[in-house]
Amino acid sequence: EEKRRGAFSSRRVFILAAIGSAVGLGNIWRFPYVAYENGGGAFVIPYLVALLTAGIPFLLLDYGIGHKFRGSPPLSFARMRRGAEGIGWWQVGICAVIAIYYAAVLAWAVRYTFFSFNKSWGAKPGDFFIGEFLQTSEPGVSATPVAGVLIPLVVVWALVIGLLALGVQKGIGATAAVFIPILVLSFGALVVVALFLPGAGQGLEALFEPSWSALAEPSVWAAAFGQIFFSLSIGFGIMITYSSYVRRHTDMPGAGLVVGFSNSGFELLAGIGVFSALGFMAQDQGQEVGEVASSGVGLAFIAFPAIINEAPAGALIGVLFFASLVIAGLTSLISITEVVISAVRDKFELERVAATLVVALPMALVSVLFLGTTSGLHVLDIVDHFINQFGILLVAVVSMVVVVWGLKALPMLAAHLNDHTSVHIGLWWRALVGVVTPLALTYVLVDSFITDVQTPYGDPTAPFPTWMLAVFGWGSALAVIVVGFVLARLRWRDEATVD
Ligand code: PHE
Ligand code: NA
């Protein structure tokens, strides 16, 4: 069985791979701004509450499912109950969609690593990024290719396919074992350099200055739970897949604590690095930190190049920053793509290399077609927003409620986790996973659903065509559900796999 599906050689390698998946773009470009916007120093309270009451407990649920049922999400859910297989495929679909656009950000970061050496973005990084680099069209869909994006995108996919074809240990495990230490070093060096920039102190003050009144606002708590779910990548199949590759009789709860705290540690580190750099930018431009603070694509590809232009040792900062983005993103992209490969392998009994090609080549093709053109930024923007809100969060609530209340699997999973553990999984876990986490998730979900229905997503001064929001936004979130339940109707190559 282990021979057929592949396995990590040790618990340590699993932990590294799981950290590699968790630590991604979200830590670097999302967390610092979310913390800043939602109470600054005071955010530590909702954040820790979310981590301890929902993040880690839910992480352990994923670990329990994958480790006990030893399969990709569809196989694990089918083994729990035949009728639940569709939930697994729904998770697989979400992973496929995310991988398709996540790869594009990686491709941009690869280019920007090289741009850093001689600051190829010139004096106006914003115009350069949107115009010259991405050649962004009006909101809509275009078929005009952009060679400068398309080529690195093909390279990224070739690399991911090559690494995944090597298998669980030699591909996924070895990549994490090599690159996670490099990431810690490169990002650590970046933070140290950033701390010495003039103005760093103001940046840190702006980030850590606590606004205690924020604690009274529900939206701040929603932001904390949202960040934790996104950042730990829980509830959509990644951790089920990785823990299915861990040897039996392994201390999984202990591993979960290590992964959870490492991921949060990396977020804190990123907050310090990013806000030191933003403090420098504010001082340099004679503005408030609040006026220059940003997140996501704008932070990485517009604000950072501007900082790199002006900062002492700018080229060094640039290389460290973009190389860190590439590494953090690569290990996350590997993890989401593996979910799809693993599911297809389980269901159709394909060899590793065949399954990798059958799965990843079409994904790469779609990725190149939609993200390698002048409308790539628009597609990415919409799909990312909707799949995060109504893909990840929704499947997380639904799968959790089904496992807990439909299949009543918690006592069995707790017993499994307790078989070998350094932390006893008691009734507290069942209370958190059964009640607290689903309620918190439902709140966050309903809250963002109302927002999206009331105001169409996007920039009101350059709105997306309605059909585009319908197809790429709501459509992709819905399509993964439909496709998921269709795939669940197909027969297993070997029906005995499921029993
Ligand atoms: N957890 C990752 C992060 O914090 C994000 C991610 C999302 C990873 C989806 C894989 C899949 O950046
Ligand atoms: Na993360």
TrEMBL record:
Membrane topology category: Multi-pass membrane protein
Locations listed in the record: Membrane
A GO cellular-component term linked to this record: membrane
One Gene Ontology MF term: symporter activity
Keyword annotations: Membrane, Symport, Transmembrane, Transmembrane helix, Transport
TM helices/strands, residue ranges: 13-32, 44-66, 87-110, 146-166, 178-200, 220-242, 314-341, 353-374, 386-407, 427-446, 466-488
InterPro entries, per database record: Na/ntran_symport, SNS_sf
CDD domains named in the record: SLC6sbd_u1 (cd10334)
Listed PANTHER family: TRANSPORTER
NCBIfam families per the UniProt record, alphabetical: Na_transp
Family under the similarity heading: Belongs to the sodium:neurotransmitter symporter (SNF) (TC 2.A.22) family.
Name of protein: Transporter
